[in-house]
Amino acid sequence: REGAVVLGVACVAGRLAVTWACREGVPSAREDGLGALVAGTVGWFGAMTATAFTVGLTFLAMSRDGWIYLLIAVGSGLIVAWEVRRRAVRRLGGITGDVLGSLVEVTTTTVLVTAAALLT
Hints:
Radius of gyration: 15 Å
Distance between the termini: 14 Å
Structural class: mainly alpha
Number of helices: 5
Order of helices and strands: HHHHH
Helix content: over 70%
Shape: elongated
Number of domains: 1
Largest sheet: none
Number of strands: 0
């Protein structure tokens, strides 16, 4: 059961990374494409609400002892995503659809690997 919960929370965390990457102030790398459609569209309140939802999901879904480790794993995934997004903005000038897709993958993988290390 915990494996399925970890996988579900990791997938949600991957989408949460996209939410944070689409915050106001994050530019698009190009005039067209997915990045241009979504860059800067998420306000602070929306990002915080999505984060609170993810934290609540983690707390409710895991056992009493495991939720803190899974929360650490989610935090690790978001830190890695923040760094990838920061580098993309610096090197490309902003986000693209491919950058957003990579954030999902990097965050989900980081959460899964970190949770596996902490929960075993």
